[in-house]
Records
---
Amino acid sequence: MAPLDVAKIRADFPIFDRTVRNDRRLVYLDSGATSQKPRQVLDAERNFYEHHNAAVHRGAHQLAEEATDAFEAARATIARFVGAQPDDIVFTKNATEALNLVSYSFLNATIKSARGKALPEGAERFVLAEGDEIVVTEMEHHANLVPWQELCDKTGAVLKWIGLTDDGRLDLSSIDFSERTRVVAFTHQSNLLGTVNDVQAVVAKAHAVNALVVLDACQSVPHMPVDVVELGVDFIAWSGHKMLGPLGIGCLWGKAELLAAMPPFITGGSMIETVHMESSTFAAPPKRFEAGVPMAAQAVGLAAAIDYLNDLGMDNVAEHEHRLTQLALDALSVISGVRIIGPTVAHERGSAVSFVVDGLHPHDVGQILDEHGVAVRVGHHCAWPVCRRYNVPATTRATFYVYNDEADVTALVDGIKAAQRFFGVGE
Amino acid sequence: MAPLDVAKIRADFPIFDRTVRNDRRLVYLDSGATSQKPRQVLDAERNFYEHHNAAVHRGAHQLAEEATDAFEAARATIARFVGAQPDDIVFTKNATEALNLVSYSFLNATIKSARGKALPEGAERFVLAEGDEIVVTEMEHHANLVPWQELCDKTGAVLKWIGLTDDGRLDLSSIDFSERTRVVAFTHQSNLLGTVNDVQAVVAKAHAVNALVVLDACQSVPHMPVDVVELGVDFIAWSGHKMLGPLGIGCLWGKAELLAAMPPFITGGSMIETVHMESSTFAAPPKRFEAGVPMAAQAVGLAAAIDYLNDLGMDNVAEHEHRLTQLALDALSVISGVRIIGPTVAHERGSAVSFVVDGLHPHDVGQILDEHGVAVRVGHHCAWPVCRRYNVPATTRATFYVYNDEADVTALVDGIKAAQRFFGVGE
Amino acid sequence: MNLENMYQEIILDHYKHPHGKGLKDDFAAEVHHVNPTCGDEITLRITPNEDGTLTVSYDNQGCSISQASASILFDQLNNVTLEEGTQAVEHLIAMLQRTEEPNEDILGDGVALVGVAQYPARVKCALLSWMAWKDAAIQAIGKGE
Amino acid sequence: MNLENMYQEIILDHYKHPHGKGLKDDFAAEVHHVNPTCGDEITLRITPNEDGTLTVSYDNQGCSISQASASILFDQLNNVTLEEGTQAVEHLIAMLQRTEEPNEDILGDGVALVGVAQYPARVKCALLSWMAWKDAAIQAIGKGE
Ligand SMILES: Cc1ncc(COP(=O)(O)O)c(C=O)c1O
Ligand SMILES: Cc1ncc(COP(=O)(O)O)c(C=O)c1O
């Protein structure tokens, strides 16, 4: 393990050259929503546009060749980062689309099957019957909850969920998968609670009943080493923009035989094999799921982000965040009137630290922090059911990443105390 | 009208500083696939990342406010460009997703209605019955054909199409819309033939039977003034990357009351109103259709592209392309063995010029052109049925844009002649 | 601090001691509005009176701005007509978009909300109860006809 | 011109005078492969013989590279065994990915396709018929068992 050199890292991020509000230093604690981007990523994207820009997989000219090479090389880099094969990585606009791609595979397979239409070999895995069960958890981001609600609404499948313990963990004792369980969709790390789930434990139970496992890896891939083979899941989805990469790109990884068995989702150019007016046939994955001109520049940018993270070392990144999380948990727990929502220990926990301040609404806490240059997120963090579970209308959330350090934790603590003073609450 | 100053324009596009193959000048005639990007667009995107990057619509801190402002200001700029209201513009990853968004609205409304599930007021417009008809044309890009084939496959609606005349126009005499006609989806300008269709004529007939009209404006918005009110259509879809904007962003415009009546497509964060584990309700458009963290930087880049085009003047852009198209048609028509696929006159025609060379396969023509620095596209251009209609396996296609000039037309002509000489065909 | 423009004493007073909070059992229309980004909620009820004015009651949860704004709404819009109330809502919107100067005759303590205009993300908080009022008022009048 | 490495005389000869083009009526397996980017197509048939070799016939349309490559395939793979043919297909792929040096014993005139490796977009053209052969050969053998 090598500690991160935060000063050196910050120098790579142009945004830290600016100040916020009353000329305050920017203390960016909102990487859980989206991360900042290093020069290396912006340069890679710009270099693509300035030297190799063309529509990929579509032309025989030199620029098109170069663009295609850059795009596919990016796919290979991204695949390697999660221990996958390039052809098993599908590019989407964000993680939300990636999760919808999977849920719509079930919808489309179910509808086409009911109408006796052609489906890829093996598509039965995606055909749902009335009463089949889809299991999520109570800590899901809306992106891994609403698509499954919608799927149930449209197919007659039934949504169930794994509950949470009072200390912010999955209540594994509440699991009752059955032969009706077709999908188990859950998050690797909760974006609100910070909880890191025991993936293998859930996978073992899900696979025992032959259910497919969809992992929302939005808050894990950016923060810790992730290997799809080790995890044993069937699909993982994540976003580029939370891991130093550009906006506008997400990734789906799926087991090859499952991707091959899925009917297409978004259809159009580049995902076809042959097209007649009467009917069409479709290309093999990943192309089958990448209709239209893809976000090649963003893929190149994301690959540069991965190079950057690899240079830091994902073990070191995880260790760095772990240390800051520990510090933050310790510091917050001694402010009277502050209550952590989520595990209060750094064990099996990531750097998303949510809290409430007695007598203050999170919006007001966030506002005072902002005035001190500390950027946090307030609200339900697209995980509204978690707020309900813990009886809070909303929380204030700080998240730490590679460019944060101890001084940022101190700024957070000072800001919270200032908010208490401003509103005359706390000690 | 003011003629474009092409030398000045080219100076804004960094890619023209490079050469291709054997140190040749880059003659980029593939803007129909994707356009090149001026410095102004790349700067706008980078400026967003370096100074205002945050997840939009999600934070109370200053960066989040600035990012949201920039994103919504971009939406307003883009709306103004096509004569629309900002709230009626939905951002997607490309035009293909925009067209699928509309086709999936029909699918989702139809399925939810059959199961008696809640739908927005007015959603009947999107509920299909077995035997309802969806009409496209034989000149559609796969992006405006395959989604409708899929919709028919899944709902029992029937796909019909308007045929083409021998000279590359829509055969309006073959139109037979009926009360069963629910959707008429067609392209404003064919990306293969170059044909510009008489939108109002088709709209009048479609609206007479109460069908909804979906216009694929991928090849019109970048090239001519487009006003959604004047066109009278119900939806238009187009891409940012073909109009000097970044990759990874497309737009859907729809009439407000229709967008409001559509159930969601991709679901997740930011598109909801309330979320419970049991069920959720959804936000008003455009948010309802923009699940997940959106491509804000790309929206800002696209707005910069529109500023750039507005500075040139869309009338001037259209006139410039018209002149080059005229030149190219004239020059190609006198090369023996070259046959234009599509209208041979520049009237009601855009700058996509497709052709075949007797005795040569388009791939080989494209290869020799590439060797001369001329970047064209070869193949079926994602409009395979058009190739079948005109009995060619594929075509070579040149497309002109704001940075092309007479010298580029000459380079194309010289390259074609060189290909004929190389393979020993032609005169 | 700029913040003090938004969190004026008068706003904090309304927040800490809200006026008229609590739902009346008797009503012609009830609406429930939420701010989906932060989860602020309000339930608001309207009862039309013989003289054409509208009685309002509400219950809510949310940040200081949304709670103070609801309290001020109660002061200003309880027992006014649809026209008077709508005019006030429109003026509040215009003030927060900085297209109109604060008018104390119309908004009373509400003019103190002007500091919110500096913080676009908070404008929704200030408007939540007022938009709910407008929605409910129109429904209540509609039903009466 | 670099191009001359790809369009060698020998390639253009095969293109202009293709060997063995035309389908045989008698076959155990038929496949139809297309290159979806450009619309190149090939129909290829395989008939297994008593001695374990496979007779091939084909019809195609496409660019010079894909046509020449099919003509060369006919020279090299007509009446060879599945193992011999598969080895040749694999060597061709490796040569086009520049991981193996051209081996004339295996590819015959096919070594002239080495120039295609410079043009990644054309590699698919060169491989189209060979991938079709492999697909059909496996099917034909499978059916024989
Ligand atoms: C006419 C037409 N429609 C649709 C598309 C699809 O656009 P995109 O690939 O950006 O989704 C294109 C371009 O590829 C086009 O030219
Ligand atoms: C756990 C989790 N899942 C899903 C998402 C959705 O990601 P995106 O908005 O990039 O689609 C996020 C982030 O917003 C997240 O934190």
Note: Chain C has a mean pLDDT of 93.
---
Amino acid sequence: MDLNFTPEEQEFRVAVRSFIDSNLPLDIASKVRNGSCLGKDDFVRWQKILHRQGWGATMWPKQFGGAGWSAVQLYIFDEECSAAGAPMQLPFGPKMVAPVIMAYGNRSQQERFLPRIVSGEDWWCQGYSEPEAGSDLASLRTKAERQGDYYIVNGQKAWTTYGHYADWIFCLVRTSNEGRQQAGISFLLIDMKTPGITVRPVIMIDGGHEINEVWFDNVKVPVENLVGEENKGWTYAKFLLGHERTDIARVGRSKAALKRLKQLAHREFANGRPLIEDQRFRDRIAQVELELMALEITNMRVLLADGKKHAPGPEASILKIKGSEIEQMLTELMMLGLGHYSLPRSFEALDAGARRQSADADYAAPLSGNYFNCRKVSIYGGSNEIQRNIIAQMILGL
Amino acid sequence: MDLNFTPEEQEFRVAVRSFIDSNLPLDIASKVRNGSCLGKDDFVRWQKILHRQGWGATMWPKQFGGAGWSAVQLYIFDEECSAAGAPMQLPFGPKMVAPVIMAYGNRSQQERFLPRIVSGEDWWCQGYSEPEAGSDLASLRTKAERQGDYYIVNGQKAWTTYGHYADWIFCLVRTSNEGRQQAGISFLLIDMKTPGITVRPVIMIDGGHEINEVWFDNVKVPVENLVGEENKGWTYAKFLLGHERTDIARVGRSKAALKRLKQLAHREFANGRPLIEDQRFRDRIAQVELELMALEITNMRVLLADGKKHAPGPEASILKIKGSEIEQMLTELMMLGLGHYSLPRSFEALDAGARRQSADADYAAPLSGNYFNCRKVSIYGGSNEIQRNIIAQMILGL
Amino acid sequence: MNFDYSEEQLALQDTLRRFIDKEYRFDQRRTLAQSEDGFSREVWAQLAELGLLALPFPEEYGGLGGNAVDTMLVMEVLGRGLVLEPYLGTVVLAGSLIRDAGTLSQKDMLLPAIAGGELLMTLAHYEPGTRYEMNHIATTAKSTGNSYLINGAKSVVLGGNDADKIVVSARTGGGRRDNDGISLFVVGRTAPGLIIRGYPTQDGSRAAETQFDNVEVGDDALLGTKDGALPIIERAIDYAIVALCAEAVGIMTALNEATLDYLKTRKQFGQPIGRFQALQHRMVDMVIATEQARSMATLSAVRVDSIDAAERRRVVSAAKAYVGQSARSVGQAAVQLHGGMGVVDELNVSHYFKRLTMINATFGDTDHHLGIFSDLLLAD
Amino acid sequence: MNFDYSEEQLALQDTLRRFIDKEYRFDQRRTLAQSEDGFSREVWAQLAELGLLALPFPEEYGGLGGNAVDTMLVMEVLGRGLVLEPYLGTVVLAGSLIRDAGTLSQKDMLLPAIAGGELLMTLAHYEPGTRYEMNHIATTAKSTGNSYLINGAKSVVLGGNDADKIVVSARTGGGRRDNDGISLFVVGRTAPGLIIRGYPTQDGSRAAETQFDNVEVGDDALLGTKDGALPIIERAIDYAIVALCAEAVGIMTALNEATLDYLKTRKQFGQPIGRFQALQHRMVDMVIATEQARSMATLSAVRVDSIDAAERRRVVSAAKAYVGQSARSVGQAAVQLHGGMGVVDELNVSHYFKRLTMINATFGDTDHHLGIFSDLLLAD
């Protein structure tokens, strides 16, 4: 048992840090650190920078252009990116559709799609959930009917994150109504520019636009965009669900957030003294730090065990539950730390005069919104209730 | 809306308090305040004192010898008894079997049993649960077969509190296997001295003996001990379950316990200062006090609403859940307040010399045991999970 | 002891509820929240007509002589409707200050105008960097003989962008954290040197940062005793806290209804999700938390009028802390049980949740008031 | 970075587990708990034979040179078996004090005797009224030239009733709460003036109140530096805390197994109660809490040997606080899910629960250590 990083791993960390130091655009880092919204351009710029370094899809097998890193290296990379304020790499392309294409796609799909993911040329989004198929994904109804060399797709997808930025969408569609629900689902890749696709924004609780409805009205999709076999899509979907793993616990991000929380507690004042001296608030920080210390180890335990058996397990659900709870605690504490300055909706409304008198103004603006928005992390990607069901069934055999 | 007690209610309180002051034996009060175990004699002595005053069964209708008090008066009485350290009146006779006999028993049963309950002559226990029928009470199997003027009872009851003290047991027994489980249950009153009854002690987590198994081996019970009609026992049982109400929230007891907790926090020391000055411990006391302040009002709201509609509602489940949680918090804090002095199993082992040096000795002895024992209050009488099911179904219609 | 409302109280609540159901639907409210003022002057006039703006004032000033329980009833319904109109600042905060501390002529001039809906007011008390401490006042008012010059800044003044007059606290004596030396002044929004920067708050209402640069007011602007305003401010804020607790209870009740309805209608895995026991139990916990919060809010409303300052402090802080805890858990659970629908702008659930969260940050959060309550145990 | 145990470690754990499964069944344990000693000298001899009592000592004193991770492995299994034998006091507490601070001749005399199972020892440090403060020492040791006279009282000395020798802390200088001025002495149980009053603890093991009335010991009884023992005591207690965390993890693991088994076999309403989602989710939370606690316990075991005193303080307090929280929720949930069977003496569940609860009260409870960890944030 050894919880220290090897000298090689430490050197690796130094190399990563130094690369980020010299290459991460300051405007992007500042947005990330302040919790502001990132635009498409911010994500893409950073992806292209990583790509130039050969780090565009570090978690991929080498044969597809990945870095061939160990789980520990991937974790270090994630931690350094988070600490420096690099944008989170969006999972839809590199971590979701790509592994499916690698495992089940044909050669020509692999050659066509993978390079454009790693280079940042193609932005992917996910077409899984539907208004009536959320936790119960297999009840999905979006229909794809074969007509010659095309599928004709009709239906509606919901909760499509960054669908308004996307070049491609990977979809679960119903190609058969026979047998079990799961047995009639196929996995289709659809060009977002195809006629008949409508993207409608859904405004979030914090007023931001991340998610969308995507409507399909007689959308013609070439059959070569079918991944694997028709009606086997559920298998691929389950494979995918088990995949987005190295950062499902979001330890790196939460460590960076904890650091910001502590800074905030030193800068804000309560009763004429720094807020950190308020024992009740300090204890709350301590509590979330304990949770995070433990999760960091739990995360490594799962990742290293996975690395051995090379098959993602339901333990990821533990990471998802704890990771999301911690993220939510952190955003909540940052908001609470502001006191009554958590009320203003937009500090742009405060002019420089007010800012001078309020220590809060510069970093306070997005914090309440972040708290509200962050309620989603225990809901999306399988709510924490669904995660508990998975653990109960898959690990405990209940 | 008026949350003050009327002048009459305040006078009533004074009268109750003064009666208790002059009549409650000091040795009993001291045991109650220290959380020590009470013996049968302690309960019976106090019951006989109450009976002499005409308060042996205050919650009964006047026609059966009750006091004819309002819900508020009953609450005041309970609060004063708790504050003074009077023994909790055990529910089995006056609050459980008696209402059933009043509502469904015949005249001769009423005349035979009720006076001996109020006078303290008969000690009753409850024969409901069985090893295989806990939460799922209706699956009970103890069998009563009619043979002439007798029922022959065979089977086993579990969790029989104070069964070893009891003169009588009221039992749910199976008299038919036809139809729904609930439709074959009858309500029998059984003399504990009848041949064939065996009482076996079950030792509790704290080492105490409160509960028992009661075995029935061809026990002959006269048919006149059947309450109401054969196979209608489930109706009576449900009626009974809704009854034990005026103190299901145990507000009076918890208020007395909170007071003791505060005294403890002033007497114990942490880091050379009274424990109450430890903000973390003080905050925990504050938190439970908030819960209790709210529950006191919730309790009155339910009781006064019940008083109007004269039918107990599922709101009692709210009182049971919150009341038990608060009781558990209080016993836990008292134990935690002792620090390492919560470890010794019995302070009888410490002689006077050690006692002199430890502020803890006199009142510390039972506190850990009370915490352990008190885990039962969220389990018995329908676990808090069952209570949540009741609320979900009966109040929320889920 | 009884928990019954009088017929008048029930009638008032019923009228208001029907008005809101009809004239203050969620889509109408959304439009208002995005308007310049952030509320409707028309609705305000209608609230005046219903008598709501006169509720807590003595009859000789055109009021209805209502008590804190009456205000509680109203606030519950306003909470349920997510009403944006500046009732708290104008009627509860400023109104009770004037009622309790005003001179005859101040009451004559201001109370009927508030009651009639012609005058919007608020209290500007907290300052940047003070968090929730009530005696931490740096704004000064210097006497020049027969007037005062006010200098300083006040932060997150509720309804400050629309208020016609602002009651402002300032030091006429004492040091920055002294209890003595604080006075109140009534300042018109157009007073030279008064800069008001309004903004929307997270819950869609409005507040403002205010800056006082040599704002001159006459002696007659003094509200209450010179140097002795803190107890009056504390009492007014306590009334406002009790009102906020009632508003929160109204919101929690509405959230529970919405959530229960969602559990019964939303289907997944071939059945309503309300058939799943884990969700049932969470819903039950929401109901229990709400009923307990209702009890505590009721207790504080009944007691706040009648008890001495120390006991008022204890009960009001108890209510703010406890209702805040309940509101947090109910709000978070309502969002979670709604799944994705809980975090979109489209449904009222997210708006209820945001308002509950902002109530917690107003006049002291849960930990602040738990701390006050806890520290009082030292004297027990 | 890796979480793998060596083959030796796995073999040791396996041997111990098999020994306990066979020779330390729950009914045997019950008999021991009710015996005079409260444990079995025979089992103790067998633990010595297995090498357990020599584990953390250097090889030159008959030890195995094991580290804190080795101790963790052992303690997990001892926890699982609810082993009553005084391993913590003798091997972990007293053993590490002697190993780290003893003179050559003290080590020569004591360590092989401990390792061989011939000598029971413990540390007597905490005093009545000190709660969990480590520097709060009133017991005095007055030098008389070439001996010391010890006076004072020590409370809840673990295994104190059976220990052959007791390491006792006493003031040779400084005031009651000074960090400096504390020294350690090794005292035989038969020393005149030493009164030991043993008693069972809530979890069935044994402890004692000890009274020192002019107990005289020679200069050679001094263990470690005069006046400078506090850092050594802190380190030994930190080792003990790490061991207790591992024991707690072992117990939680066993409780989870027992509870899961109960959920699968206990039937109500015609099905195993483990089919009920609310119970499933509670079981899942127990598992998550246990895995998180295991992570934290592991972290502390790996770090306690290698890091400086300040960082050790941080990690060890983090572990004690966090494992304590997990143990509380897992223990309470295990009892609740067992229903009535959880609160009877007959099943091991209640015994596991009691032991977890008592671990929390040993060497500082959850709040105590959270407080230490929290206060360190001030320096961040």
Note: DSSP finds eleven helices and ten strands in chain C.
